[in-house]
Specification:
Oligomer: single chain
Strand order of the largest sheet: 1-2
Number of helices: 5
Largest sheet: 2 strands, antiparallel
Helix content: 40-55%
Structural class: mainly alpha
Distance between the termini: 90 Å
Shape: elongated
Strand content: 5-15%
Number of strands: 2
Length: about 150
Amino acid sequence: MSQKRRTRRRFSPEQKVAILKRYEITGSVEPSPHGGGKPPKLTSEQREIVLELVEEDNDATLEQLCHRLEAKTGIKVSVPTMCRWLQRWGLTRKKKTLHASEAESERVQKLRKQYWTTIGEVKLSDLVFIEETGVNISEQLSVNSYQLSFSVG
């Protein structure tokens, strides 16, 4: 024969007093429904203003957006709050990666090919490599008719 286990919960004296008080007032020991929390700081009109600010300057920082919102509406919000709003609305604040628009042009491709052709003609024995961390101009040395100044140490 299986026995049903009873789950017992321990309550602090303060909890017991609160439960008895709730029972006296409502006739039930069930907890009250959730109060709903803090109302949103932005109205739908103000939300539209934030979205317009982002549209006007997509590269604006969160701090700049906060200042512009305050200037336009008088509502002061923190940078983390602005970040949460934009994330909630599906907007990211990643900056654009700079990329030269002409990098893939025919002219640049031709120059690139020309450069690598020229570099390919350079002999490795003609190259001089200098480790710069210990370079000093106190001594001079002549290498392949080039005058180099450096010192080790």
